[in-house]
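# nightly structure sweep
# worker-07 picked up a monomer target from the shared queue
# config: single-sequence mode, recycle default, output format = structure tokens
# input follows
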Amino acid sequence: MVVIVLVIVAVLVWSFPVAGIKSTKENPSEVRSGGDTVITETFDINNSEYSIVNNAEAFQQYIYAAHHCQAYGYPDMCLGFSMGYADSIVTGDFEKAKHVVNNSPQGLSHYGYSGRKLFSSKEEMLKEAYLEIAAGRPVIIHINGNTNGTSRHYSPAVGFKKTTDPNNVQETDFLIIDVYDAKLEPMNGKGSKTRFITSGRDCGWAYDYELYKYY
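# output follows
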């Protein structure tokens, strides 16, 4: 009897990975971008309201329960996982995210996220990320892989704060599904010991800011 109770508790804990999150999916909000209207889901996380693209909540719960993330034996495959996650959200084919092979062009050819774009300005990159998400498409962003930002990591950004100013988008406005542990979490600034935007040059690469878009 004790074993059964412990198993049930463990399942419940695993099913709800993010503390402080409240879904209000039954009350969708409208995000307008370029004349288009996209119906999104609305969340409250740590006392901030976010609008996120359709399928993102359901996919995150699915992939977290499946333990399909880097933490389960897939080091150095963050870009491949990011493309798999984002493509699954766009297409609604959640199983497709499990087909990540590696970070090579062959491994990434399963997905529609081949639109790599480089920016010299962090502000321009953030604005474009905002517009893509507002149009219902997750984007893959270049973030820190360690606490000081000298190692790169990738994850799909799937939402932004409802208070986001389109003319002054901040990295702390975004919500990501971190491919390391498949958790839905807000972005924070450098020095926060969580995820924040980094440039390629911060990590020893010859480019500035990077974004992958769905094509």
